[in-house]
């Protein structure tokens, strides 16, 4: 995954432009105002998304093409995505949920470590809800003991919480010292009606720009190389920049976020920790292949012994197939 630092700001009275914009998702009008392109020959025009935003209130991000299907127009990658999806579904455990109150989360996870010796290869922390990054709780979680080595950590924060996320991951006295930051993922909502749009309470009053995006820092413990460790990390078929689309819904974690982790790692041991309540507007939905810990998780069915039996049935690694191996992007030697 190549790191893309995406700047997705909407201004109060100002809108940016994007060279890759051109779809029609959510448009109220089929056309956008045009203006002559500066410093160019007469008759040369370009889309004026800033002007269109001022008059319509529609953010330029609405016009990004392929927001739902990023590999559209690439038949081999489309086939690879289908094959990977089938293989991931085939070797996934049943959905597990553990309904745990915030104040009991540290105690519960410690019991998993000490009483059942549970470990996970993929751990995700947080959701697209602004109350998730609670430093006192996150710093006490036994992430270093829950994470296998090598292992992958995906931790989410809004732009407003980036400083707290940096503080957490740079704390030499916490579990974060075992992890090194590798890459950054970005998720962008499309307008103010989105359940993922930052609330006014979290935007400084004197700030001119509204920062829309959500950041996910992917961290690694241990050493992995794509060229030699293909049984651990495999298809890099997702971009680092995801845009809300018609299929996103209002779940606390959109499906495309889970898919990034599933396509990147071949492990079947996946844990998602959502430290605090996300509310009715952001329901926590179950997902095959994941253990989801949250105060709001719909299904409370997690049992460590049953989980170990499930893993024994599907295995701890998703097997490779010849078709996937031939189609997947490869790192040059």
CATH topology of the largest domain: Rossmann fold
Largest sheet: 8 strands, mixed
The CATH architecture of the largest domain can be named as 3-Layer(aba) Sandwich
Q: Percent range for helical residues?
A: 10-25%
Q: Quick one: CATH class of the largest domain?
A: Alpha Beta
User: What is the total number of structural domains?
Assistant: 2
- Cα(first) to Cα(last) distance is 16 Å
Uncertain segments: 1-31
Main structural class: alpha/beta
Strand content: 15-25%
Write the H/E string, N to C.
EEEEHHEHEHHEHEEEEHEEHH
| Rg of Cα set | 21 Å
| Overall 3D form | globular
* Multimer state: single chain
Please count the beta strands (DSSP E, at least 2 residues each): 13
What does this structure look like?
The protein is built from nine helices and 13 strands. The chain is an alpha/beta fold and 333 residues long. It folds into two domains: 9-63, no CATH class; 75-327, Rossmann fold, CATH 3.40.50. The chain has an eight-stranded mixed beta sheet. A three-stranded antiparallel beta sheet has the order 2-1-9. A two-stranded antiparallel sheet has the order 3-4. The longest helix is centred in the N-terminal third of the chain and has 16 residues, at 75-90.
């Amino acid at each position: 995954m190549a790191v893309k630092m995406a700047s997705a700001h909407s201004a109060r009275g100002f809108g940016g432009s994007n060279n890759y914009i051109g779809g029609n998702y959510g448009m109220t009008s089929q056309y956008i105002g045009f203006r002559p392109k500066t410093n160019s020959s007469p008759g040369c025009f370009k889309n004026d998304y800033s002007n269109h935003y001022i008059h319509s209130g529609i953010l330029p991000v609405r016009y990004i093409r392929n927001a739902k299907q990023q590999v559209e127009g690439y038949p081999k990658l489309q086939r690879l995505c289908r094959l990977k999806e089938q293989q991931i579904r085939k070797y996934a455990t049943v959905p597990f949920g553990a309904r745990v109150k915030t104040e009991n989360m540290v105690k519960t996870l410690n019991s998993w470590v000490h009483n059942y010796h549970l470990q996970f290869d993929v751990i995700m922390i947080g959701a697209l809800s602004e109350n998730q990054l609670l430093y006192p709780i996150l710093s006490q979680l036994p992430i270093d003991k829950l994470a296998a080595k090598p292992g992958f950590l995906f931790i989410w924060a809004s732009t407003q919480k980036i400083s707290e996320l940096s503080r957490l991951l740079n704390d030499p006295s916490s579990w974060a010292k075992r992890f090194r930051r590798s890459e950054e993922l970005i998720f962008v909502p499309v307008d103010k009606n989105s359940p993922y749009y930052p609330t006014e309470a979290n935007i400084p009053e004197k700030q001119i720009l509204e920062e829309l995006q959500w950041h996910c820092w992917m961290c690694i413990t241990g050493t992995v190389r794509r060229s030699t460790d293909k049984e651990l990390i495999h298809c890099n078929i997702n971009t680092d920049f995801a845009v809300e689309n018609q299929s996103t819904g209002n779940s606390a974690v959109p499906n495309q976020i889970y898919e990034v982790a599933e396509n990147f790692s071949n492990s079947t041991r996946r844990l998602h920790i959502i430290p605090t309540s996300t509310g009715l507007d952001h329901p926590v939905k179950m997902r095959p292949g994941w253990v989801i810990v949250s105060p709001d998780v719909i299904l409370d069915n997690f049992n460590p012994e049953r989980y170990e039996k499930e893993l024994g049935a599907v295995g701890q690694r998703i097997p490779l197939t010849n078709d996937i191996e031939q189609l997947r992007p490869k790192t040059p030697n």
